[in-house]
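Input (Superoxide dismutase):
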Amino acid sequence: MSSTLLRTTSALRGALRASRALKTTGALASTGFVRGKATLPDLPYDYGALEPYISGKIMELHHAKHHQTYVNGLNSALDTIAEAEGKGDFTKAASVAPLLNFHGGGHMNHSLFWENLAPASREGGGEPDGALKKAIDSDFGSFDTFRKQMNTALAGIQGSGWAWLVKDKAAGTLNLVTRANQDPVTGPYQPLMGIDAWEHAYYLQYENRKAEYFEAIWNVINWKTVGARFEKS
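Output:
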């Protein structure tokens, strides 16, 4: 088998696995799917509820425009793969794998991201408690050390991407990982909390002062939701 065919077969298998997983489970419990189609999830707060830390205009554009684009792109990729698979056009199906990864990852990442946030007047900000606090103290030394390491990871992202607090499924320990563009967290890690480092998440408000955004967003992190996700993972 030629190297080109091997790459095509590998990409096709990955695309079809991701396609079936997305259709049947939405990849994350919070990811909206209706009759096999990805849908834009409703936010549990108003667009302006995270001010002054994240402006209402940013939230509206981020959710209604950018996330919707990932939803539309994911549905288009899934339709193309299904059609190509039905025709036996494996090369066509494999060629869509990058789009499935990008838009599917964008949909999953943002669906979890919205749940990670809450108004500072409600559950947003502060520090985690319970089992999550104990795990952070054990694996990072302290919450303050963890936050500094997370901000350092965010600042080190070249271009667009995400930084994630993850749980190692086998060891049960916490780690920090970064992912480029919209690449989702997969493999041995369970994503618990992510911070979006794409410019569309902050530029209208913070312009090129992204370090200020990385500091500000901690005031609206919903540790109750993150802690519940940790205990269920």
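The chain has two domains: 3-33+54-115, 130-232.
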